[in-house]
Amino acid sequence: MGIEEVPWLILGTSFRCLDVPPEAKPDLDALLGGFPRQPAAPEEIVEFRVEACQDSTFLEGGGARWDLTGSADPLSSHIEYRIVDEAIRRAPGRWVLHAGAVAAQGGLGTCLIIGESGAGKTSLTLWLWAHGLRLGTDDLCPILQGGLQPESFPRSLHMDAEYSPRLMARIPPRPASFPRDYYPFPVLEGAAPMPPVDRLIVLERGPRPEGELEPLSQSEAAHHLLKATIRTPGFDFGRALEDMVRLAGGCRSHKLRAATPEGAGERAMELLGAG
């Protein structure tokens, strides 16, 4: 069955996109290929639809309509972005954090990596994955409300930036058929759920000495976690604060300052005991 018949299940909501041009289907399938597909009742599926007429292209879904005419980005990238954005907006029973997540060897615990935009959290997350830790997500980490269980978010890795040559040398080559600037998410067949969060790294760009570490109190860690939580419609600040305080209470939390990706990566590996 094709991508229009079987919906993707993303953050607890089923999605499909109709009328995707044939030339865009393989790339869209690749970008969302890490998410499971499973049948769902029609009334439970959120539908997006591509409308192409003459020289114009539009995308509709989630009660919105976007004019994509003349965009330099591929149609598949637009669709993937809008579907994921709608999934986050809905995300039943989940907080979604701007965070990377890696699991320690042996499933002993999950480390969240957060930081301001441009701090290098994606590079650090991928560095730790490339050095043997299990990748849960490089950018968006769902956390179940109440129970605080982290979930993997197997979105394809968007790698159009200038990453460290040492990092790129350790990452498997991108398949020739895969969309440009993206890498397949390393889905592990039969993998157990992500273990509970027991570490938090708040990454900051900073001057040398490389890899300066500063322990964080529970209140400081909770503040950073709450700041990283995406505010969606109906966001319950009080409940989010309560959960983030509890999450911080179960973590060993540090602020990590580094001037280079290599410095951040090597210090984080020491902290987490990675090889």
What is the tally of helical segments?
Answer: 7
Poorly predicted residue ranges = none
Radius of gyration over all CA atoms, rounded: 19 Å
**Spatial order of the strands forming the largest sheet:** 9-7-8-13-15-14
Secondary-structure content class? alpha+beta
Q: How far apart lie the N and C ends?
A: 42 Å
Number of extended strands: 15
Major sheet attributes? 6 strands, mixed
**Oligomeric organization of the protein chains:** single chain
Write a compact overview of the structure shown.
With 275 residues, the chain is an alpha+beta fold. The chain folds into two domains: 8-90, no CATH class; 94-272.
Describe this structure in words.
With 275 residues, the protein is an alpha+beta fold. The protein folds into two domains: 83 residues, no CATH class; 179 residues. Helices cover 27% and strands 28% of the residues. Strands 9-7-8-13-15-14 form a six-stranded mixed β-sheet, sandwiched between helices. The chain starts with 7 loop residues before the first strand and ends with a helix.
